[in-house]
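Good morning,

Attaching, inline, the backbone tokens for the sequence recovery test we're adding to the shared suite. The designed sequence is right after.
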């Protein structure tokens, strides 16, 4: 198993922190590699599993603009993508902040993926479990402790 320190999601900051990921990120859909990066960034926010963002240049899947958007009080307006790998299409499975807020400017040109809409997502050699619920895009790995937001009854945190 990859050497990754224990982290408690309740000790992550608010507003969130942005930092380089220490391990490679690998994502598969339809049996195909859709992204692999040693240059990913991760966002750490209280009660959330880390969200990983990969440089667009490290994404090999086809990304097709999807309808709709959302707004994050910290990062700004998110635009969504359908992810296409071979004959498989995962709808609204990835997003980007084309023009993030000043604090998150490094995220411009980076793409995040919902782990639950992919076949597999990996941090190093640790397979990811999607953050509970269908709204947040965090990636749960075995090194995380604490209560992770997203399950029913946690929306008020």
């Amino acid at each position: 198993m990859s050497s990754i320190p224990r982290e408690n999601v309740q000790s992550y900051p608010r507003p969130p922190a942005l930092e380089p990921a220490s391990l490679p990120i690998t994502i598969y859909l339809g049996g195909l590699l859709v992204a692999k990066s040693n240059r990913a960034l991760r966002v750490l926010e209280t009660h959330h599993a880390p969200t990983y963002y990969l440089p667009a240049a490290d994404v090999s899947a086809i990304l097709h603009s999807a309808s709709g958007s959302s707004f994050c009080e910290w990062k700004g307006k998110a635009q969504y993508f359908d992810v296409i790998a071979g004959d498989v299409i995962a709808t609204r499975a990835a997003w980007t902040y084309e023009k993030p807020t000043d604090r998150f400017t490094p995220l411009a040109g980076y793409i995040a993926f919902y782990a639950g809409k992919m076949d597999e997502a990996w941090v190093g050699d640790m397979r990811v479990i999607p953050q509970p619920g269908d709204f947040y895009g965090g990636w749960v790995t075995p090194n995380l402790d604490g209560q992770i937001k997203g399950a029913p009854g946690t929306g008020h945190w």
